Amino acid sequence: MTMISVNEFKNGLTIQYNNDLWRIVEFQHVKPGKGSAFVRSKLKSLRTGAVQEYTFRSTAKVETADIQTKSMQYLYNDGSSYVFMDTSTYDQLAIPNEQIDDEANYLLENMIVNVVMHEGETLGIQLPNTVDLKVAKTEPNIKGDTSSGGGKPATMETGLVVNVPFFINEGDVLTINTADGTYVSRANK
Predict the structure, then answer these.
(1) Which is nearest to 63 in space by CA: 22, 98, 102?
(2) Strand pairing report for 130-138 and 92-96
(3) Exposed (0-12), middle (13-18) or buried (19+): which is 52, by Cβ within 10 Å?
(4) What rounded mean pLDDT belongs to the chain?
(5) Whole-model pTM?
(6) In this structure, are residues 3 and 16 in contact, taking their beta carbons and an 8 Å threshold?
(7) How far apart are CA 103 and CA 101, in angstroms?
C-alpha cells in the first residue's frame, strides 16, 4: 500500500479513504490569503457510486488503492446480473445490475470491456472511450432545417437517448462518447 500526498492528486486516481475505495473525479488546490493551504476534492465511491466532497489539509497523506483490470467479453444479461467471460480461460463472472448502472447504456453483446477488481472484489467495468451504436428510433429529417445548428433526440439500440444532428436517420451507426453520452460522429463502417 502506497501513501501519497494530497498534492499529488490526479483525476481518475483511485484511493482508499474512510474504509472505502474512491476515484478522484475532480480536485482543486486552494491557498487562502489567511490560514494554511488545502485540497478540495470530489470523490466517487467505487462500491456505491455515490459522489462526495472532501477537504484535505495540504499536508495530509492518503493510501492509493491497488486496482486490477481484466479484459473480458460481455455475454448477456440474465435479468439480475450482467455475465462476462474471460476470453483466455472461458471463466464466467456475473456482476449484479446495481453495479453496472450507467454503463449498461453502452453495452452490446460480445463487447470487450475491462472488469475492475480490488483484492478479489469486483467493483464494476470500464468502457472504451467511445462505442458504436445503431439508431433505433428518431424523428425523420426536416429539409431546410440545417442552419439552426440544433439537434433532435435519437434512441439508440441500447435504450440510450442522445441528442444528434438533424441529418441522422434510423439505422445509422453512430460513435458515442461513453464519458458523457454525447454524439461524436457517424461510425466508419
Answers:
(1) 22
(2) unpaired
(3) middle
(4) 86
(5) 0.70
(6) no
(7) 6
Residues in the chain: 189
> Three cell numbers at 138?
428518431
Residue found by looking up cell 464494476 in the block: 124
| pLDDT reported for residue 21 | 87
CA dist 13 and 42 (Å) reads 12
E runs forming strands in the chain: 3-5, 14-17, 20-30, 38-45, 51-57, 61-64, 68-77, 81-85, 92-96, 112-118, 121-126, 130-138, 152-156, 161-164, 173-177, 183-186
Give me the amino acid identity at 54. Answer: Y
Whole-angstrom distance between the N-terminal and C-terminal Cα of the chain?
45
pLDDT digits (tens, 9 = 90+) for 8-28: 888 878 898 988 888 888 899
Other CB atoms within a 10 A radius of the CB of residue 134 amount to 15
List the strands of the sheet with 92-96, edge to edge. 92-96, 81-85, 68-77, 112-118, 121-126
The cell 439552426 sits on which residue?
148
Look-up: residue for cell 452490446? 108
Strands of 152-156's sheet in order across? 161-164, 152-156, 130-138, 173-177, 183-186
